[in-house]
Peptidase C39-like domain-containing protein (Deinococcus soli), 279 residues
Amino acid sequence: MSEAQTARPASLTLSGVGHDNQALNNCGPVTASVVLGYHGKKVTQAQAAAALKDGPNDVEVSTQEVAAYLERQGLRTVIRYGGTPELLRALIAAKLPVVVQQRLKDGDNTAHFRTVYGYGAQGLTSSDSLLGAKLTHSEAQFERLWNYYNGEYLLAYPANREADVKRLLGRDWDEAANWTRLRDEMQARTQKGGATAFDWWGLGQARLSLGQAPEAAQAFDRAVQIGVPLQYHWYRQGALLAWNRTGQAERTREIAQRILAQQPGIKEIEALLAQATAD
């Protein structure tokens, strides 16, 4: 056991983490409001939504968009992958709540942000804009929902905490090192029996982020072959991007047209379709 683990309390719930019930498709704006409130800046859900969404019919606010908005409000941010409950406990013990992107619940394909701010014997506690201010999952439940998005997390912090964040993230402070670790972990999983479509997707996303587009496209192909819900592409466009970069624009067109028939107006999908059509 490390010195940090020895000194860490067995359970901890941060004070000052707020909660709001979201309007339709507003988990991103609520999350931004909750994080800013914790760090001392009051922003309403409506104000955050006006900044983050193109309009009431905008169904998808990405992690990157939330991070950019938080930075415009004066915080610093990192987005990383392959997060673990142990890391969340360490960050919470350092008084840093963490935003995660997860499946809303088992069997539901909706992507959902939660702000994790507590841990203890019962598991991890989050402020959830749909399911409550003190939503607790066991670590097994939490990881199952989190693996759907390859352990993605967003950490926002004031500039004077950057040294603490670097220390706590270790090698994962470096973005390329984090992608390399995710690639290696997902590659190990996919070489064993029972790998999920989302393991293959994580491998594809890591390869793409490391500049390995042909290898990424192969991993995305396998993910789609196993079975990725069409809605998954609303939130993560890595496969479409990889196909566009590797001369497979027809695949992007086919998937993008199906998505937009199901849910018109997703600007990221429209942009990738336009690129594929121009190629």
In short: The chain has a mean pLDDT of 95. The chain has 14 helices and seven strands. The radius of gyration is 19 Å. The chain has two domains: 12-172, 176-275.
